[in-house]
């Protein structure tokens, strides 16, 4: 069945297409006689040299012989049970074998290492985080993601920590998608955005042998309304004077109020201190940078009442 991600997902039952060889010391391994196609990595299809192949076979034979000599005591450690919903990835002398299971799997002592891979659908939540939308609104947004592994070999060979990598990919995709949209679009088209996130995440994770089945976007709260809303904050005379001094009279006259602007350290204790570079201030007044975006990116530093500092947006709208 063709998934929404645009590629053909592998059904769980199709894992039996792999050559199942749980017993034996030479079966189902990549060697010098029968290299497999479609391996992972650039050198996965390259066969071993003859000396390496002979050494590999000899050591495997010694391990199998040791298993027979110490049987049945070694059977408690060498025989593993793999349930239907799992596959076992075995590394023999560092070389990967085809997925083992379900059923009983024989491991050779000292030369085999293994890793279990769960094929069942799992889920995680992207914790709510504060984001600024395109129209300047600040909102708390999270997401619920369901995924499953469709290729156990890729999930082991291509990424070290699959869960952490998938979480970071989902969070980055959500952040990039919401920063480009206004608040109203986010609230009205959550399903459409969720489908787009599903495709974007799958474009990354399909190379890891993982398929995301479902993404549900959750808007927890709107922490600050859009900056272009009619109910915006009133103009602050002190900030207007700062804009007037920088533009050298190119702005409308400020209303009555108290306050002053100047260079250096202020005489008294100011209500709010806004720190930024001259280049960033010029970008603000030229409408190339928004105060909220500058604050969240660290280019605008505020000491004091943050609400007063955010009135810079109202000043900039008045300077249009």
Structure in words:
The chain has 320 residues and is α+β, with helices and mostly antiparallel strands. Among the domains are: 54-118, no CATH class; 121-224, 2-Layer Sandwich (Tetrahydropterin Synthase, Chain A), CATH 3.30.479; 270-319, no CATH class. Helix content is 33%, strand content 22%. It is built from 11 helices and 10 strands. The chain has helices at 50-69, 75-78, 152-157, 162-179, 183-188, 190-205, 237-247, 278-285, 291-296, 306-309, 312-318; strands at residues 79-82, 86-92, 95-96, 103-106, 112-118, 122-132, 138-149, 210-224, 272-275, 301-304. The strands form 4 sheets. A 3-stranded antiparallel sheet has the order 3-2-5. Strand 2 and strand 3 form a beta hairpin. Helix 4 (162-179) packs across helix 6. It starts with 49 loop residues before the first helix and ends with a helix. 25% of the residues are buried. Mean pLDDT is 75; it is low at 1-44, 229-236 and 245-257. One of its GO terms (cellular component) is plasma membrane. The chain crosses the membrane at residues 58-79. Residues 77-242 form the Band domain. InterPro entries: Band-7_stomatin-like, Band_7, Band_7/SPFH_dom_sf, SCP2_sterol-bd_dom, SCP2_sterol-bd_dom_sf, Stomatin_HflK_fam. Belongs to the band 7/mec-2 family.
């Amino acid at each position: 069945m063709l998934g929404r991600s645009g590629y053909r997902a592998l059904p769980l039952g199709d894992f039996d297409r792999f050559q199942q060889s749980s017993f034996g010391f030479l079966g189902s391994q990549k060697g010098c006689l029968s290299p497999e196609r479609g391996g992972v990595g650039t050198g996965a299809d390259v066969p071993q040299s003859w000396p390496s192949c002979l050494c590999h076979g000899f050591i495997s034979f010694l391990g199998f012989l040791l298993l027979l000599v110490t049987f049945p005591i070694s059977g408690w450690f060498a025989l593993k049970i793999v349930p239907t919903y799992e596959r076992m990835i075995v590394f023999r002398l560092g070389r990967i074998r085809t997925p083992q299971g379900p059923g009983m799997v024989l491991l050779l002592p000292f030369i085999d290492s293994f890793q279990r891979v769960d094929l069942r659908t799992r889920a995680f939540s992207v914790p709510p985080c504060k984001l600024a939308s395109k129209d300047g609104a600040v909102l708390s947004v999270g997401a619920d993601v369901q995924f499953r592994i469709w290729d156990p070999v890729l999930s082991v060979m291509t990424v070290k920590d699959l869960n952490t990598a998938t979480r970071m990919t989902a969070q980055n995709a959500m952040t990039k998608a919401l920063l480009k949209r206004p608040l109203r679009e986010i609230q009205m088209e959550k399903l459409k955005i969720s489908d787009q996130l599903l495709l974007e995440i799958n474009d990354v994770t399909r190379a890891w042998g993982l398929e995301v089945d479902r993404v549900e976007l959750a808007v927890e709260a709107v922490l600050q309304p859009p900056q272009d809303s009619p109910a915006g904050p009133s103009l602050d005379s002190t900030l207007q004077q700062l804009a007037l001094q920088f533009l050298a009279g190119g702005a409308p006259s400020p209303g009555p109020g108290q306050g002053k602007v100047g260079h250096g350290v202020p005489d008294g204790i100011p209500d709010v201190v806004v720190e930024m570079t001259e280049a960033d201030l010029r970008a603000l007044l030229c409408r190339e940078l928004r105060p909220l975006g500058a604050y969240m990116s660290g280019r605008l530093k505020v000491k004091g009442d943050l609400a007063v500092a955010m009135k810079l947006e109202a000043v900039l709208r008045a300077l249009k």
